[in-house]
Amino acid sequence: MRMPVKFRQSLRALPLICLFTSAAHAQLSGSAGILSNYMYRGISFSADKPAARLALNYDAPGGWYAGGQVVSGQLSTETHRYAQWLGYAGYAQRLSSGLSWEAGGTAYAYSGTPGWNFRELYVGIAAAKISARLHYAPDYLGFGERTLYAELNGGMPLTRRLNFFWHAGYLYSRDNTQTNHPEARLGLAASSNGWQAQLSLDMVRQRAVSTGGYYSEAGESKVRHEVVLALARSF
Fold first, then answer.
1. What global pTM score does this model have?
2. Which neighbouring-strand residues pair with 25?
3. Separation of first and last alpha carbons in the chain
4. CB within 8 A of 221, min separation 6: which ones?
């Protein structure tokens, strides 16, 4: 039995919650779009510059699904744009209670900085208007850190074509407390004739950076706000 479309969308979108959608009956779908800033768990992975994104998704009979995306990103250690790849696969089912659950894995690859490549496992559960997911990475971003990332996603329709959505997440490292940080997103998403637009406010609490270029344990934390605009076309 297939899981609700909303649950699949929140997984496929990852850092772009509720933006790229597909028809419930489609087995193969995709989207192409541009973003004013590619935000990943509250951090810009495009050096605070616009980025292009292409995504493909496949929903197989019986609850299996897979997909991926490529983004023209730029990490903090890079001087040029490189492709950032993401691929995922998993399984989901609807329970008799109406809830849905899922489990799967995600692989991240950064062509400009392959040392940052890493993999995660995740489990999740979803209701009609809210979903939760827990991710585990044994070597987050190649830093040798074991991390847990917990997220909640939700939303509600405001009109036939306009939706409000929210997202909250927390990244926890068992090996480096300087990595730990909360982040959140609030926004509006609109769709019409295969086009989707999203306007969001992304917020993240980070430690102050020391003069050496690393997070300073003695530094005061600060909250960064970023307004992100995204436009996409489904196919």
1. 0.85
2. none
3. 24
4. 205, 206, 207, 208
Closest to 224 measured CA to CA, from 200, 196, 203: 203
Written as one letter, the residue type at 154 is: G
pLDDT per position in the chain (235 positions), as tens? Answer: 444 344 444 434 443 333 333 344 558 999 999 999 999 999 999 999 999 999 999 999 889 999 999 999 998 778 899 999 999 999 999 999 999 999 999 999 999 899 999 999 999 999 989 999 999 999 999 999 999 999 999 999 999 999 999 999 999 999 999 899 999 999 999 999 999 999 999 999 976 544 333 344 445 678 999 999 999 999 9
Q: What is d(CA 230, CA 123) in angstroms, rounded to the nearest whole number?
A: 27
Domain ranges across the chain: 5-234
Helices and strands: H and E segment counts in the chain: 1, 14
CA dihedral of 141, 14, 58, 65, whole degrees rounded to 10 = 80
3-state secondary structure 43-105: EECECCCCEEEEEEEEECHHHEEEEEEEEEEECCCCCCCEEEEEEEEEEEEECCCCCEEEEEE
Phi first, then psi, for residue 58 (nearest 5°) are -130, 125
Amino acid at 37: N
CATH architecture of 5-234: Beta Barrel (2.40)
